[in-house]
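A quick word before the example. In earlier lectures we treated sequence and structure as two separate objects. From today on, think of them as two lines of the same record. Here is Alkyldihydroxyacetonephosphate synthase written that way.
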Amino acid sequence: METPSSAAEPMLWSGWGDPAKARELPSSVRKLLRDLLGVTDPESAAASFGEVRLPISALPAPVMTRLSTLVGDEHVRCDEDARIRHTRGKSTPDLLRMRAGDGDDAPDAVVLPGSHSEILDLLKLCAEHRVAVVPFGGGTSVVGGLVASRGNFTGVIALDLARLNRVLSVDKVSMIAEFEPGLRAPQAEQILARHDLTLGHFPQSYEYATLGGFAAARSSGQASAGYGRFDDMVVGLTVATPRGTLEFGRAPKSAAGPDLRQVILGSEGAFGVITALQLRVRTAPRSKVYEGWRFESFAAGQVAMRRIAQEGPLPTVLRLADETESMIGLSRPAELGTLAEAGCLMITGFEGSEDDVAHRREAVAALLSELGGTYRGTEPGERWEEGRYSAPYLRDSLLAAGATVETLETAGFWSDLPRLYDAVRLALRATLDDPLVMCHVSHVYATGASLYFTVVAAQDEDPLAQWEHAKRAVNKAIVLTGGTISHHHGVGRDHRTAYASEIGDLGVEILRAIKGRLDPYGILNPGVLIP
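And the structure line, produced from the sequence above:
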């Protein structure tokens, strides 16, 4: 067993990531926002940590006593710091509420178990006393995935998995490693590097998200073209439920009935708590090259992406920004406000052995050149790599400046993608006052791709209601145009209605039946995922 060399740092309670990286927008960008979108400074300052309003803890004293007996007094926390830091996730509505000092959704206690058996006992206890349990990894959900519906429950606890942060085994013959769920992605990569290995999973939440969270939300990383989605990496799972233990995965592939791993992957803690994961690993790359290409239009760039996805070879990273995102330069947040040339920026990245990287670069370059792409060298790609995790910090800065800014994503087949792209943009423009709407293709497949949108608008007098109105319209547009309601953010609470439309009445019945069998008292993340 191997553990991280250092403890994971907590995220900023009212924003993203490291508080030291938060910064105000320069005056030039504020002027651009004012002139372009009518953004003005907020009328009141954001609440300080000490101004957050918390409800009185509702957990009965006997439950608190038994929780302490199960995991130890020091691992049951009811202090304001712990409760505030486990309130909601990191969506724009989540942050707007926290910035307003609204801590109404705070858990009554934060519990940090240290083993699978402790979690089993804890779930039995909470089922007995009707206490809702919200599994908590990195806290990076952006779809309302960490807010329990209290209903008739006697209380709510956040089940923080931070103590389950070990690499349990590394099998270099089978290229499989077994991890505990609370290990953050950078910690996992540090330990794997000692074995000359990597997972290759680098989503925008990489710095703070956990491996268990990746599985529970069906995460997809920025290098998915080369390494695959996270659910592609999962070969085995151990899960604690109120009914007992589930263990899946004893061979690479199997014809022994339906693959029940798929029931847990994407289940967002509603069916059980992942306590161990067996994951496919790769040899750490010897060579990395990131490059930029320019296309005349978003449509032309998508044609090139489709050809690469269908004919190969694939780069490790393949992304394409539309005209607006390319012009604004969202791929380089530190330089926001410096308008780029017209056209669309494509990022191609290659990781692997030197020979493999050289071969794929040459083949991809030949195809992109044939299809109208103009090579822009390595500088755009290196700049993207340097700032690949910076966008959430920019979102915080824009919120502080008085802008409503949020991201949303979907996916569809190649033939449906133009209509899906237009429908989402139209929905945003119809519901927000003259917004700036940007988009990029972030993940590609032989049959289709994902679309990732960023929207910026001036905040009105009720920015929460403003965004909720827009979000409902976008969800409806995605359903009507045949896209999926989420490619990699998950369902949470924000997408439940649209998810029900996507899977149909019978699909909803199946989900509810699984929930009823594994969690008969409904204590696991109530209100999340299940329509």
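Notice the following. The CA atoms of residues 249 and 255 lie 12 Å apart. We will return to this example when we discuss secondary structure assignment.
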